[in-house]
Design brief:
The complex is a heterodimer of chains A (427) and B (122). Chain A is an alpha/beta fold and 427 residues long. Helix content of chain A is 31%, strand content 13%. Chain A is globular. Chain B has 122 residues and is mainly alpha-helical. Chain B is built from three helices and two strands, in the order αααββ. In chain B, a hairpin with a 2-residue loop joins β1 and β2. Classes of the chains: A alpha/beta (427), B mainly alpha (122). At the A-B interface, α6, α7, α8, α9 and α10 of A face α1 and α2 of B.
C-alpha cells in the first residue's frame, strides 16, 4: 500500500511472460473489472464485489505482458473531481502534498506520479483522466469515443466515458494506448480507427515535431481561469511557438453551456445505470424487514455516498415527466452545438489548446462542501466528452508554489496522432 | 439552430417518471424565488429508491437550489440539429460461452436453488 492512499486493493496480477509491456507495471482504476480481484468502484456498495470476468482492456494488458500492481483509488463510481468521494478515503497528491490529486482517477495519477507504478489506466467521463494527470504532473489521454472498449468498465455515463492511459511521458502514454485501443465485439460502440481515417501507430507519433502545427485557442476556456494557470499556459504556448508552431484565437460560444449540459446528461445516465445496485445480485447483505422497494431504498441509503445520491436524485428529476424537455433535451441540444463548434474550429486548426483545469490542485477537504463549485472546475474538460473527441493533458509547468499545471490539447475524432505529436514537444 | 421550439406531437410519450403509477412530479424548485421544497426532494428520493436521513434532506434541499439554478442556463441553448453518424452493429445469433450459473450467483448476498433471492415484492 502507499502512504497517500493510492490503491484500494494492492494485489498483483501477473501478465504473460512476453509482450511489449513485459517489464512494466500498469495500475488499473478500480472501476475496471479484474477477474478474481475485487473491484469496488470506490463504493461501499461494491466493497466485496469480485468480478467473474476481465474487462477487455485488462485482457489486453495481460496479453501484452504487463503486471498489474493493484487497483487504484477513485471517486465513488467516478463521481468527483478530487478523489475525496471514495468510500476508502481520499488520496493525497504526491506532487503537491496537502492537496487533492484531482479526480476521479486520482489514485491512478498518484501512483504514476509517485513512481509506484510505471503507468496506469483511468476512465474519463468528464475529465477524470486529464484532471488528475494535470494535478499530479503526469500525462493523461482521453481517447476518441469508441477507440477503446468499455466492456468490463462499470458504467457511470456510457455515452461519455472512455478508458485512457496515464504515464510519466507522452510516448509511454501513447504506447499504453496502442495496447488497449481497437474494436471489440463485446462493446458495440467501438470502431476500427483505420476505417475512420486514423491508424494505431501512436508511440511513433511522439516525435516532438510541431513545425507548422496550427493551434486554435478557445478564448472561453481561459476566461475566469486562475492567473498562475493562465500564465503557465501561455509559457507553454510560447514554447510550442519557439519549436515552429503558430496559434490563433477561436470563439466557441457553445462551451459556456458545456458543464451544465454535461452534468444533466451524466446525472441522467447515472440515475439509470446505478439502478442495478439493489442489494440482490451484489451489494451489502440486506438485513431489513420490508418489501422490495423498502429494502432496495435502505440498501442504497447505506451503500451510496453523498455525491452518488446527489447525482442519482438529480438525474431522476431531470428525466422525469415535465422536466425532461427542460433539462435533458436542452442538454442534448447543447451537446450537438458543442460538437458543431469543435468541428468548425478544428477545420482551421490541427489542435485546440487550453489549460486542462482552470485552477491548481485544491487543498484536501476544501471543495467537498460545495458541489456546484466542484462541478464548475470541469469547465475545460467536459466539452471534449460531449463532442466525443480525443484530448491529452501534458505537464505545462508549475505555479509559484510548485504545483503542477496541465495543458490540454484537443484533436479531431480518431486523430490521436496529432495530439500525441503536439504533446510530445512538451513532455 | 435558432428555430423556435416545436412542442412535441405527443407530450405523453415521455411519461415514464414513476415505476408505479403516480401523479406528475411537483417542481423541485419554485420559479419565483429559486428555492427548493424539501418534500419534493423526498419525493424524488422515493422515486429513485434511495432513503435519505433528515440531515441529507436538509443539505440536498439547499444544494439542489444552487445546482438547478445553474442548469437554468440551458434555457438559452438554441435547438440544434443532431448530426449523428450512427449505424446498427449486429452479429450472428449464435450460442457463445458465457458466465456459468455459479459464476453469475457468486456475488449475490442471498441465493436459493440456483436463483437470486430478493425481498418480497409487496
Amino acid at each position: 500500500m502507499t502512504d497517500y492512499n493510492g490503491y484500494i486493493t494492492a494485489e498483483r496480477i501477473e501478465g504473460d511472460d512476453e509482450g511489449r509491456l513485459a517489464d512494466r507495471t500498469v495500475a488499473v482504476k478500480d472501476n475496471i473489472s479484474t477477474e478474481g480481484v475485487r473491484t469496488t468502484c470506490g463504493s461501499a456498495m461494491l466493497e466485496e464485489y469480485v468480478p467473474p470476468y476481465d474487462a477487455t482492456v485488462v485482457e489486453r494488458l495481460r496479453e501484452a505482458g504487463a503486471t498489474i500492481p493493484g487497483k487504484t483509488n477513485m471517486d465513488e463510481f467516478g463521481m468527483g473531481t478530487t478523489t475525496e468521494t471514495s468510500a476508502f478515503g481520499p488520496v493525497e497528491n504526491p506532487a503537491a502534498p496537502g492537496h487533492v490529486p484531482g479526480g476521479s482517477s486520482g489514485g491512478s495519477a498518484a501512483v504514476v506520479a509517485a513512481g509506484d507504478a510505471d503507468m496506469a489506466l483511468g476512465s474519463d467521463t468528464g475529465g477524470s483522466v486529464r484532471c488528475p494527470a494535470a494535478f499530479c504532473g503526469v500525462v493523461g489521454i482521453k481517447p476518441t469515443y469508441g477507440l477503446v472498449s468499455r466492456y468490463g468498465l462499470v458504467a457511470y455515463a456510457n455515452s461519455l466515458e472512455q478508458i485512457g492511459p496515464i504515464a510519466p511521458t507522452v510516448e509511454e502514454a501513447a504506447e499504453l494506448l496502442e495496447v488497449i485501443a481497437g474494436p471489440d465485439d463485446r462493446d458495440a460502440t467501438t470502431r476500427d480507427a483505420t476505417e475512420a481515417g486514423g491508424d494505431y501507430d501512436y508511440a511513433a507519433a511522439a516525435d516532438g515535431n510541431v513545425d507548422g502545427l496550427e493551434i486554435g485557442i478557445p478564448t472561453e476556456l481561459l476566461e475566469g481561469a486562475d492567473e498562475a494557470v493562465v500564465e503557465t499556459f501561455w509559457d507553454a504556448i510560447e514554447d510550442l511557438e519557439a519549436q515552429g508552431a503558430s496559434y490563433h484565437e477561436v470563439d466557441l460560444p457553445s462551451v459556456e453551456y458545456a458543464v451544465e449540459a454535461y452534468y444533466v446528461i451524466a446525472m441522467s445516465e447515472a440515475s439509470s445505470n446505478l439502478a442495478r445496485f439493489d442489494g440482490v445480485r451484489y451489494g451489502p447483505t440486506p438485513e431489513y424487514e420490508g418489501n422490495w422497494n423498502e429494502e432496495f431504498a435502505a440498501v442504497r441509503e447505506e451503500g451510496f455516498g453523498a455525491e452518488v445520491k446527489r447525482r442519482v436524485l438529480l438525474g431522476t428529476y431531470a428525466l422525469s415527466a415535465g422536466y425532461h424537455d427542460k433539462y435533458y433535451k436542452k442538454a442534448q441540444d447543447a451537446r450537438a452545438w458543442v460538437k458543431q463548434d469543435f468541428d468548425e474550429a478544428l477545420s482551421e486548426a490541427d489542435v485546440l489548446a487550453s489549460p486542462t483545469m482552470p485552477i491548481p490542485p485544491m487543498e484536501l477537504g476544501e471543495s467537498l462542501d460545495d458541489p456546484l463549485q466542484m462541478y464548475l472546475a470541469d469547465a475545460n474538460t467536459t466539452p471534449v466528452n460531449l463532442a466525443n473527441l480525443p484530448a491529452i493533458s501534458v505537464p505545462a509547468g508549475e505555479t509559484d508554489e510548485g504545483h503542477p499545471v496541465g495543458l490540454q490539447l484537443v484533436g479531431s475524432a480518431f486523430d490521436e496522432q496529432t495530439i500525441i505529436r503536439a504533446g510530445s514537444a512538451l513532455a | 439552430m435558432g428555430q423556435p421550439t416545436v412542442p412535441p406531437i405527443c407530450p405523453g410519450r415521455w411519461r415514464f417518471e414513476t415505476l408505479t403509477a403516480g401523479p406528475r412530479l411537483r417542481p423541485i424548485m419554485s420559479d419565483s424565488d429559486q428555492t427548493v421544497d424539501p418534500e419534493a426532494v423526498e419525493h424524488v428520493a422515493r422515486l429513485a429508491r434511495v432513503d435519505l436521513d433528515d440531515e441529507e434532506v436538509e443539505r440536498f434541499t439547499e444544494e439542489f437550489a444552487d445546482i438547478l439554478s445553474a442548469f437554468e442556463a440551458l434555457d438559452e441553448v438554441p435547438e440544434t440539429d443532431r448530426e449523428e453518424d450512427l449505424a446498427n452493429v449486429m452479429r450472428a445469433d449464435e450460442i457463445r460461452e458465457g458466465l456459468s450459473q455459479e459464476e453469475a450467483l457468486e456475488n449475490a448476498p442471498e441465493t436459493e436453488d440456483g436463483f437470486f433471492k430478493g425481498p418480497r415484492v409487496s
